[in-house]
Amino acid sequence: MVSEKAPVIDTLTGSFLISTPQMPDPRFEEQVIYVCAHSHEGAMGVAINKPSPFFSLDEVLRNANLPIPKKALPPVHIGGPVELESAFILYQSDYQAEHRLEISPTISLSRETKILEDIAHDRGPERYLFLLGYAGWGPGQLEAELLADGWLTLPADDHIIFDVADDEKWRMAAMLYGIDISTFGDMIGYA
């Protein structure tokens, strides 16, 4: 007799976590987190739709004594509540950095300052987000939050990360898969 088991999620790396209306932590209300690493040791991701009202990339470049490029710069994003003083660049992998975390075949994450220098000199990645901080979970913590219906997991989409307006990413990421996230909790049932 063969026993059927529910599929085990090996890793959520490269996926979206979309906060549901049941999210108990107000810091993650209407957030889209791009999961950068996930294993039995925990998880790490960055919020991709939370622009900072306090910092601009122009200021970051000026403070680093770097020139301001002619083309428009994206906003600085708050990647999460952990280590807000740490900067990360999430970028399309057609640009190559020496020190990077390859999340998917098309997306990488780095803290390498050379990327910021390349952005200042118009030779950096074409599509990127500059982030301060990240979201982190200890062993089993994210899985517990998933069971409590705080997050919806969906395949990530590069277009949502880089091309959709920040205030539309939460809704659009879910709508790609036919989910109206604003009514998500109204439809959950338990057997």
UniProtKB/TrEMBL annotation:
A Pfam cross-reference name: DUF179
The protein's name: UPF0301 protein DPPLL_14640
SUPFAM superfamilies recorded: VC0467-like
Similarity remark: Belongs to the UPF0301 (AlgH) family.
